[in-house]
Protein backbone atom coordinates (compact mmCIF):
# COMPACT_ATOMS: atom_id res chain seq x y z
CA UNK A 1 0.00 0.00 0.00
CA UNK A 2 0.97 3.59 -0.55
CA UNK A 3 2.66 5.36 2.27
CA UNK A 4 0.29 8.28 1.69
CA UNK A 5 -2.77 7.72 3.91
CA UNK A 6 -4.53 10.69 2.32
CA UNK A 7 -4.45 9.03 -1.12
CA UNK A 8 -5.56 5.74 0.43
CA UNK A 9 -8.49 7.53 2.08
CA UNK A 10 -9.52 9.18 -1.16
CA UNK A 11 -9.34 5.83 -2.97
CA UNK A 12 -11.42 4.06 -0.33
CA UNK A 13 -14.00 6.84 -0.28
CA UNK A 14 -14.30 6.90 -4.07
CA UNK A 15 -14.63 3.12 -4.26
CA UNK A 16 -17.38 3.25 -1.62
CA UNK A 17 -19.17 6.00 -3.54
CA UNK A 18 -18.99 3.98 -6.76
CA UNK A 19 -20.70 1.02 -5.14
CA UNK A 20 -23.29 3.24 -3.44
CA UNK A 21 -24.17 4.58 -6.88
CA UNK A 22 -24.44 1.03 -8.24
CA UNK A 23 -26.78 0.00 -5.44
CA UNK A 24 -28.96 3.05 -5.90
CA UNK A 25 -29.24 2.53 -9.65
CA UNK A 26 -30.12 -1.14 -9.18
CA UNK A 27 -32.83 -0.17 -6.70
CA UNK A 28 -34.28 2.43 -9.06
CA UNK A 29 -34.25 0.24 -12.16
CA UNK A 30 -35.38 -3.05 -10.67
CA UNK A 31 -37.50 -2.03 -7.68
CA UNK A 32 -38.76 1.56 -7.80
CA UNK A 33 -39.84 1.83 -11.43
CA UNK A 34 -41.42 -1.64 -11.55
CA UNK A 35 -43.33 -0.84 -8.34
CA UNK A 36 -44.68 2.37 -9.87
CA UNK A 37 -45.80 0.48 -12.96
CA UNK A 38 -47.59 -2.43 -11.27
CA UNK A 39 -51.00 -2.89 -12.90
CA UNK A 40 -50.50 0.20 -15.07
CA UNK A 41 -53.64 0.42 -17.24
CA UNK A 42 -53.35 0.29 -21.05
CA UNK A 43 -53.19 3.62 -22.90
CA UNK A 44 -56.80 3.37 -24.14
CA UNK A 45 -58.19 2.55 -20.70
CA UNK A 46 -60.30 5.23 -18.96
CA UNK A 47 -58.10 4.81 -15.85
CA UNK A 48 -54.88 5.46 -17.79
CA UNK A 49 -54.85 9.26 -17.54
CA UNK A 50 -55.37 9.26 -13.78
CA UNK A 51 -52.65 6.65 -13.29
CA UNK A 52 -50.22 8.54 -15.56
CA UNK A 53 -50.92 11.67 -13.54
CA UNK A 54 -50.22 9.76 -10.34
CA UNK A 55 -46.92 8.58 -11.82
CA UNK A 56 -46.09 12.21 -12.57
CA UNK A 57 -46.82 13.22 -8.98
CA UNK A 58 -44.80 10.31 -7.56
CA UNK A 59 -41.81 10.74 -9.84
CA UNK A 60 -40.22 13.81 -8.18
CA UNK A 61 -40.05 11.86 -4.93
CA UNK A 62 -38.07 9.17 -6.74
CA UNK A 63 -35.44 11.32 -8.41
CA UNK A 64 -35.04 14.16 -5.91
CA UNK A 65 -32.65 11.96 -3.95
CA UNK A 66 -30.63 11.47 -7.13
CA UNK A 67 -30.38 15.17 -7.77
CA UNK A 68 -29.53 16.14 -4.22
CA UNK A 69 -27.44 13.20 -3.06
CA UNK A 70 -26.18 10.99 -5.87
CA UNK A 71 -25.21 13.75 -8.32
CA UNK A 72 -22.64 15.17 -5.87
CA UNK A 73 -21.40 11.65 -5.10
CA UNK A 74 -20.77 11.00 -8.77
CA UNK A 75 -18.99 14.33 -9.14
CA UNK A 76 -16.85 13.67 -6.06
CA UNK A 77 -16.00 10.21 -7.44
CA UNK A 78 -14.89 11.81 -10.71
CA UNK A 79 -12.77 14.40 -8.90
CA UNK A 80 -11.33 11.88 -6.42
CA UNK A 81 -10.34 9.31 -9.02
CA UNK A 82 -8.91 12.11 -11.15
CA UNK A 83 -6.86 13.42 -8.23
CA UNK A 84 -5.48 9.94 -7.52
CA UNK A 85 -4.61 9.50 -11.21
CA UNK A 86 -2.75 12.83 -11.21
CA UNK A 87 -0.93 11.99 -7.98
CA UNK A 88 0.15 8.60 -9.29
CA UNK A 89 1.16 10.06 -12.65
CA UNK A 90 3.42 12.58 -10.93
CA UNK A 91 4.75 9.93 -8.57
CA UNK A 92 5.50 7.55 -11.46
CA UNK A 93 7.45 10.19 -13.37
CA UNK A 94 9.46 11.03 -10.24
CA UNK A 95 10.16 7.36 -9.49
CA UNK A 96 11.06 6.66 -13.13
CA UNK A 97 13.64 9.45 -13.01
CA UNK A 98 15.22 7.69 -10.03
CA UNK A 99 15.07 4.28 -11.71
CA UNK A 100 12.11 2.98 -9.68
CA UNK A 101 8.72 2.07 -11.10
CA UNK A 102 5.44 3.07 -9.53
CA UNK A 103 3.39 0.15 -8.27
CA UNK A 104 -0.10 1.52 -8.90
CA UNK A 105 -1.04 2.49 -12.44
CA UNK A 106 -2.43 6.00 -12.76
CA UNK A 107 -4.26 5.04 -15.98
CA UNK A 108 -6.60 2.70 -14.13
CA UNK A 109 -7.74 5.53 -11.86
CA UNK A 110 -8.06 7.78 -14.92
CA UNK A 111 -10.43 5.21 -16.47
CA UNK A 112 -12.41 5.17 -13.20
CA UNK A 113 -12.64 8.95 -13.34
CA UNK A 114 -13.83 8.77 -16.95
CA UNK A 115 -16.49 6.23 -15.96
CA UNK A 116 -17.86 8.70 -13.43
CA UNK A 117 -17.70 11.48 -15.99
CA UNK A 118 -19.65 9.28 -18.42
CA UNK A 119 -22.27 8.76 -15.70
CA UNK A 120 -22.56 12.51 -15.14
CA UNK A 121 -22.88 13.29 -18.86
CA UNK A 122 -25.35 10.43 -19.41
CA UNK A 123 -27.46 11.63 -16.49
CA UNK A 124 -27.61 15.18 -17.82
CA UNK A 125 -28.02 14.37 -21.49
CA UNK A 126 -30.20 11.26 -21.53
CA UNK A 127 -31.85 10.87 -18.14
CA UNK A 128 -32.86 14.44 -17.29
CA UNK A 129 -35.16 14.81 -20.34
CA UNK A 130 -36.91 11.60 -19.28
CA UNK A 131 -37.19 12.92 -15.72
CA UNK A 132 -38.79 16.08 -17.10
CA UNK A 133 -41.27 14.07 -19.20
CA UNK A 134 -42.24 11.94 -16.22
CA UNK A 135 -42.65 14.93 -13.92
CA UNK A 136 -44.75 16.72 -16.55
CA UNK A 137 -47.31 13.92 -16.31
CA UNK A 138 -48.53 15.49 -13.07
CA UNK A 139 -50.28 18.23 -14.98
CA UNK A 140 -48.36 19.80 -17.87
CA UNK A 141 -48.39 16.86 -20.30
CA UNK A 142 -50.63 16.60 -23.32
CA UNK A 143 -52.65 13.58 -24.38
CA UNK A 144 -49.80 12.08 -26.43
CA UNK A 145 -47.35 12.33 -23.51
CA UNK A 146 -49.92 10.79 -21.16
CA UNK A 147 -50.29 7.79 -23.52
CA UNK A 148 -46.50 7.31 -23.52
CA UNK A 149 -46.15 7.46 -19.71
CA UNK A 150 -45.43 3.78 -19.11
CA UNK A 151 -43.02 3.60 -22.05
CA UNK A 152 -41.08 6.62 -20.81
CA UNK A 153 -40.77 5.10 -17.33
CA UNK A 154 -39.58 1.80 -18.80
CA UNK A 155 -37.10 3.64 -21.03
CA UNK A 156 -35.83 5.51 -17.97
CA UNK A 157 -35.25 2.21 -16.14
CA UNK A 158 -33.49 0.77 -19.16
CA UNK A 159 -31.23 3.81 -19.63
CA UNK A 160 -30.49 3.75 -15.91
CA UNK A 161 -28.53 0.55 -16.48
CA UNK A 162 -25.70 2.75 -17.77
CA UNK A 163 -25.63 4.22 -14.27
CA UNK A 164 -25.22 0.71 -12.94
CA UNK A 165 -22.44 -0.28 -15.30
CA UNK A 166 -20.26 2.86 -15.23
CA UNK A 167 -19.74 3.10 -11.46
CA UNK A 168 -19.46 -0.70 -11.24
CA UNK A 169 -16.56 -0.64 -13.69
CA UNK A 170 -15.04 2.40 -11.95
CA UNK A 171 -15.25 0.90 -8.48
CA UNK A 172 -14.05 -2.54 -9.55
CA UNK A 173 -11.03 -1.18 -11.41
CA UNK A 174 -10.13 1.14 -8.54
CA UNK A 175 -10.60 -1.63 -5.96
CA UNK A 176 -8.27 -3.91 -7.91
CA UNK A 177 -5.70 -1.14 -8.32
CA UNK A 178 -5.93 -0.08 -4.66
CA UNK A 179 -4.09 -3.25 -3.69
CA UNK A 180 -1.04 -1.72 -5.39
CA UNK A 181 -1.23 1.70 -3.73
UniProtKB/TrEMBL annotation:
The chain crosses the membrane at residues 69-89. The keyword Oxidoreductase does not apply. InterPro entries: Anthrone_oxy (IPR013901). The keyword Transmembrane applies. It is found in: Membrane. It is a multi-pass membrane protein. Pfam families: Anthrone_oxy (PF08592). It comes from the Eukaryota. Keywords: Membrane, Transmembrane, Transmembrane helix. GO terms for cellular component: membrane. Belongs to the anthrone oxygenase family. This is DUF1772-domain-containing protein.
Amino acid sequence: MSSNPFIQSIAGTCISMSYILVGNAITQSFMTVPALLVDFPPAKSPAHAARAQLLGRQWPLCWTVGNQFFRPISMLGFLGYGAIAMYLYRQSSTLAARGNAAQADWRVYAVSALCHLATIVHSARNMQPLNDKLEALAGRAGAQEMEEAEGVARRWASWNRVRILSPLVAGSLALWQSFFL
